[in-house]
Amino acid sequence: MEEYINISHTFDPVYDNTSRILILGTFPSVKSRETHFYYGHPMNRFWKLLAALTETELPVTIEQKKGLLLRHHIAVWDVIQSCSITGSGDASIRDVVPNDFTELLKKTEIKKIYANGNKAYELYMKYVYSNTKTEIEKLPSTSPANAGYSLEKLKEKWKIILSELEKYSDN
């Protein structure tokens, strides 16, 4: 049985002052912690999904991933600043210290927050919502653990982020 370790988030949120939506995960997986960036597990469909939705090339490097997000006014962060966890399992998360969203929400034009999965939604509602008073919408997780959702099914559910971005389009 894996041991719990108490660990802190080690990389910054991705956003700029034109970010319109925020996508929240729970806490970086082991692979993401190793790569020092969001959704680092090769089986996680987050980057494939965003590339498909935005009709752009699949980003490979951290800089390409940041570029895709910022070009499309998308911010990415996690609900948790630190916690005790075994491996990458969201179900094992305990001793939660949430991130402080005050500055991020002040410095951006974020109008809508989306949770990448049930656990991100639950944690946001439990630890963050009372401070931000900003609603969050739950989307199906892009994690490989969510095997019930094909990439096509994820695209169908996640395309809502595009309609949200179009509301604030400069075009």
Describe this structure in words.
This protein is of the alpha/beta class. The protein has eight helices and seven strands. It has helices at 30-35, 46-54, 62-71, 102-107, 118-127, 129-132, 151-158, 160-167, and strands at 5-8, 21-25, 74-78, 80-85, 94-98, 112-116, 136-139. The strands form two sheets. A four-stranded parallel beta sheet has the order 3-2-6-7, with helices on both faces. A three-stranded antiparallel beta sheet has the order 1-4-5, with helices on one face. A hairpin with an 8-residue loop joins strand 4 (80-85) and strand 5. Helix 2 (46-54) packs across helix 7.
Helices, strands, pairings?
Layout: E1 5-8, E2 21-25, H1 30-35, H2 46-54, H3 62-71, E3 74-78, E4 80-85, E5 94-98, H4 102-107, E6 112-116, H5 118-127, H6 129-132, E7 136-139, H7 151-158, H8 160-167
Parallel strand pairs: 2-3, 2-6, 6-7
Antiparallel strand pairs: 1-4, 4-5
Helix pairs in contact: 2-7
Q: What proportion of the residues form beta strands (DSSP E)?
A: 15-25%
Mean residue pLDDT: 93
Percentage of residues in helical conformation: 25-40%
Radius of gyration computed on alpha carbons: 15 Å
Number of helices: 8
What strand line-up does the widest sheet have? 3-2-6-7
Principal-axes shape call: globular
Largest sheet entry: 4 strands, parallel
**Class based on secondary structure composition and strand pairing:** alpha/beta
Stretches with pLDDT under 50, minimum 5 residues: none
- By DSSP, the count of extended strands is 7
State the order of secondary-structure elements, H for helix, E for strand.
EEHHHEEEHEHHEHH
Terminal CA distance: 54 Å
